[in-house]
Amino acid sequence: MADISPVTKAVVPAAGLGTRFLPATKATPKEMLPIVDKPAIQYVVEEAVSAGLSDVLMITGRSKRSIEDHFDRAYELEEALRHKGDTARLASIQESAELAQIHYVRQGEPKGLGHAVHCAAQHVGNEPFAVLLGDDLIGSSDPLLKRMIEVRQQYGGSVVALMEVPADQVYKFGCAAISANVEDDVVEVTDLVEKPSVEDAPSNWIVIGRYVLDPEVFDVLAKTPPGRGGEIQLTDALRTLATMPSENGGGVRGVLFRGNRFDTGDKLDYLRTVVQFAAEREDLGADFLGWLQEFVADRSS
To answer: Where is the Nucleotidyl transferase domain positioned along the sequence (predicted)?
Structure first.
């Protein structure tokens, strides 16, 4: 029988160096780059909270102190805003400090996503948990994480989010081999390959940055040798779990996601994300879209 322990904890790996956004990320964590007026990582925490996960563990590293500061109280700033009567901005900065119980642990060495997840073992204990990558933002109207937790509760094992991409793009991602559907949006994952060549890819369904993992993953990660890039890959551990019996915490299922995903780890996609989020804002959208249409028309003439 599947373990139906509730999922209450989220792990957010945030120890990466952010080299694709240098020099901006030389002193500023990539997770703190703004999407309009809110850092990307706050959207991720809000997603976890909306899925019912009130305990969030950040896996951080050197030069990530500003993440902790962002989710802490800023009493002097609060008092200044209160003195000005700026209640709207006061509420906005208090919101981030009150979102969830947020904890921190340092990864120490950048040994890969699998190693970062293993750093959460002591905090998570013997419970299923979610992993949310800060580079991937999911549209607020798409309840992907909630659905993944439902699938875990029903079937046990681990659950990954899968998204279909053109065949010539699979080499950038972890790629899943899938069998027949368990439900309309749920499949069995039989194998996973990290960044395969187009010729060797088992499908064009890629793993995106949302996972709900059985605690057995910690034992598997402890025995997983470095893989692609000399790093401990979470994909390799999931591949092992996919072949393990369900009574031992094995089995991997995929939720087929067809909603809105924003890859803020890529410069072009980051710019697209900022534009789309700004266009959808009630306070900015109309004026911004008007300017954008004029800008595009001028560039096209």
So the answer is: 9-244
Phi-psi region of 226 (alpha: psi -120 to 50; beta: other; left: phi over 0): beta
Tokens of 28: 């500023």
Which alpha helices (H) appear in 20-112, and where do they start and end? 40-50, 65-70, 75-84, 87-98
pLDDT for 1 equals 41
| Residues ≥6 apart with Cβ < 8 Å to 224 | 114, 232, 233, 236, 237, 240
Q: What is the DSSP letter of 22?
A: T
In Å, how far are 11, 13, 30, 209, 286 from 134, measured between CA atoms? 10, 7, 9, 8, 28
Q: Picking from 6-15, 40-49, 179-188, which range would have the lowest pLDDT averaged per residue?
A: 179-188
**3-state class percentages of the chain: helix first, strand second, coil last, to nearest 5:** 40, 25, 35
Q: Is the dihedral of CA 237, 102, 33, 264 positive or negative?
A: positive
Question: Hey, which residues does 39 pair with through a beta bridge?
Answer: 34
pTM of the model: 0.91
pLDDT tens for each residue of 144-162: 999 999 999 999 999 999 9
Contacts of 133 (CB under 8 A, 6+ apart): 12, 13, 44, 113, 209, 210
**Domains delineated in the chain:** 9-265 (3.90.550.10)
Which residue's entry shows tokens 């559907």?
A: 181
* Contact (Cβ atoms closer than 8 angstroms) between residue 207 and residue 252: no
Element (H, E) at 292: helix 285-300
